Hints:
By secondary structure, the chain is mostly helical. It has one domain (23-96). Helices cover 70% and strands 0% of the residues. The protein contains two helices and no strands. α1 runs antiparallel to α2 (63-96). The longest helix is centred in the middle third of the chain and has 35 residues, at 23-57. It is elongated and about 60 Å long. It starts with 22 loop residues before the first helix and ends with a helix.
Amino acid sequence: MSNMVISNNPIISATGPKDGQTKAGLASGFSDALLNAVNEVNNLHQTADKAVLNVQTGNTGSLHEAMIALEKADVSFRTMLTFRNKIIEAYQEIMRMQV
């Protein structure tokens, strides 16, 4: 399972750039993927806020749906935070390398 390669995603492909792809294209793909992930986390938090507001105002929302939305938002935020920390650690390690 650890040597599994997702070949459709150029960001995590182990084969490197395919024909016609450049390093700039891969960097752009990484930044786009990162931006999409941050936007998805933001959308989950906004959905959770709306669900909580619906419960507070007595509108169509139920407490169960609000709690599920809050947990989804929390898990996604923690995952994004862990990913950010790993990126920062990798950057700091690269900066400590002697050339």
